[in-house]
């Protein structure tokens, strides 16, 4: 009788865990690809986990340590995937990351090969999902890559409708596999769809179990790339919310030759967009000013706001854009961004509160200086090129209530 009771309690607990929702706010963490690409290994992932704790990033909300492409080895005679020599014991690595109070992610794709030419999951979806769960994996990035040549171009050449069906079926197959693996092991796994926004995944990914989905091609550590990707998020606001998020790709903060202003604006924009915040920089050699950006708790609070409403492009005036985001409790975030093409000039601007439905005077907090700021109708602003004024107004006064 005691055995039956114990089994019942275990089954109940497993069922409860399996039902646990994930990604109720946009996932935060670090991914290996943007800086390390194929040089990622066990030692590097352990070091990243250590740095996330030591730098205060964990305390700021960064939880996932995600291994991107190039970890895969060969499949054995039974089809089970094994990691390569760079990752001698994936389960032990997951246990180490968990011991630091963090979660661990992994990477695959629906084709025979990943983008870097390693083993994909085609024909092994359930097998791989169970392996990930047994290792202790908490997050899967599933990248389209070779599926285009392996399946789409072979089975449905020049037939867009048929290709769309094949692609959604492939992502649904892994979504179901992850759910089954979760039910068997009690380990919830975040499902990240990476297929570059092809055929509007925001319209169908949630029904397939997706928690986030890429909306564009790959980001690069260049202002133009950041600007182009952010601009393409306008109009997608209604598709984001707790458990399902538009993903404009990983952060490039601290990478390339981005200026301090561009790093600050990039981070602010992703927060306004309720985007996943997955850093991709060289953590052991992170500069203090980059750390200050990535750990700004006021800006992170905008991204992680539990209301889960994605910000929107309110209006543009010349080379300045204004974005707004509704927050819990009637609060409002306003981002004023100098998007001018000339990196070394400023663009005078007058803030039009009426165009965003606000009364003529507002009191808020400048989230990059930490100081109180008063916004007034028509107030002049002159931002450095590619810089941002990010303000949180906790008690926004509507123009309609005055």
Describe the structure.
The protein is built from twelve helices and 18 strands. With 402 residues, the chain is an alpha/beta fold. The chain has an eight-stranded parallel β-sheet with strand order 9-8-7-6-5-2-1-10. Helix 1 (2-18) packs antiparallel against helix 8. The protein is globular.
What is the strand arrangement across the widest sheet? 9-8-7-6-5-2-1-10
| H/E topology pattern | HEHHHEEEHEHEHHEEHEHEHHEEEEEEEE
User: How many DSSP-defined strands?
Assistant: 18
Assembly of the depicted chains: single chain
- Portion of residues within helices: 25-40%
Low-confidence stretches: 1-18
Query: In whole angstroms, how far apart are the ends?
Result: 69 Å
Pairing-aware structural class of the strands and helices?
alpha/beta
Percentage of β-strand residues: 15-25%
Sheet with most strands: 8 strands, parallel
Work out the helix count: 12
Shape verdict: globular
Task: From the alpha carbons, calculate the radius of gyration and give it in angstroms.
Answer: 22 Å
Summed over residues and divided by their number, the pLDDT gives a mean of: 93
